Amino acid sequence: MSHAKEVARYYRWLDRLEWMRVMRGETGNEAQPVHRPLRDPAGGASGPMVVHGLMLQGLSLPPAPRVLDAGCGYGASMLDMAPGVGGEWLGISLSEVQVRRGNAAAAGQGLGERVRLRVGSYDAPVEGAFDWIFGIESLIHSPDPMATVRNLSAALAPGGALMVVDDMPEEGLLPDQAARVELFKRCWRCPVAPTRVGWLRGFAAAGLEFSHEADFTPLTLPRPAAELAPRIAARAREARWKRLLGLGYRSEADLGGMVLETLLGEGVIRYRMLVARRLA
């Protein structure tokens, strides 16, 4: 099975099991944000929408920009930002379920003409010239992130910005730290998971000019390691036997998420935003 098909199957199973909504105590079929909840530095409520305001800080966009969400999930980021930013928004996802629900939500919110989702890969050529392309916890799934950056950079309009918001391992990890990073990567279907330096090299190789960055790790909300340890051990045992039956997706998703919490809490992985621009 190709990696793209494996990722699509992974998300299809998580949706079927309603893992994403259950983990947040949410119900219903509307488009849901599936990225990291953050503490609002402005004092507002914590949640997965906080990152959108942080992404827009320092970002210069033309009036009515063309925007691409590379790995859009249910399209919640576009539905949250499009009314304030304006322009035309396109989201691509490998998941037919996510695309169907996202388009229904856009239509229900009166945004169907401005926000569209379609099934596709961010590694396939994208038609158009976009003023802003972003990926929130999505490009980490790429089996070849540098090729992904090259492909997306080719779809940027002159002066357009490519933004990566993702979990980035630090350099020079100890063996135990590296082993836990590998466990997280396997559970969440992230073959490479570049470091900050790796992403910056990819930007440069694609002919992009680095613009700005931010480290959102202090705003993440990991639980204490002592609370997570017994849960990680129990979920790891469950994932092992369920994997043998082909039913391990939810258990592995839970396990990867809890391991990631410990890594964020220790600073082994940083939750960063990196932005580069195509020269005008």
Core attributes:
280 residues, 7-stranded mixed sheet, globular, alpha/beta, Rossmann fold, 42% helix
What does the model show?
With 280 residues, the chain is an alpha/beta fold. The protein has a single domain (3-172, 191-222, 268-278), classed as Rossmann fold, CATH 3.40.50.150. Helices cover 42% and strands 20% of the residues. The chain contains 10 helices and 7 strands. A 7-stranded mixed sheet has the order 3-2-1-4-5-7-6, with helices on both faces. Helix 4 (76-85) links the parallel strand 1 (66-70) and strand 2. Helix 6 (145-153) crosses helix 8. The protein is globular. The model is unreliable at 17-29 (pLDDT under 50).
Mean pLDDT: 90
CATH class: Alpha Beta
* Chain oligomer state: single chain
Principal-axes geometry comes out as globular
The helix fraction, in percent, is 40-55%
Number of domains: 1
Our count of helices gives 10
CATH fold-type name: Rossmann fold
Secondary-structure element series: HHHEHEHEEHEHHEHHE
* Uncertain stretches: 17-29
| Major β-sheet strand ordering | 3-2-1-4-5-7-6
CATH architecture: 3-Layer(aba) Sandwich
Largest sheet: 7 strands, mixed
**How many whole angstroms does the radius of gyration measure?**
18 Å
Strand content: 15-25%
Question: How is the topology of this model organized?
Answer:
Elements: H1 3-16, H2 19-23, H3 50-56, E1 66-70, H4 76-85, E2 88-93, H5 96-108, E3 115-119, E4 130-136, H6 145-153, E5 156-169, H7 175-187, H8 196-205, E6 208-215, H9 225-244, H10 249-266, E7 269-278
Parallel strand pairs: 1-2, 1-4, 2-3, 4-5
Antiparallel strand pairs: 5-7, 6-7
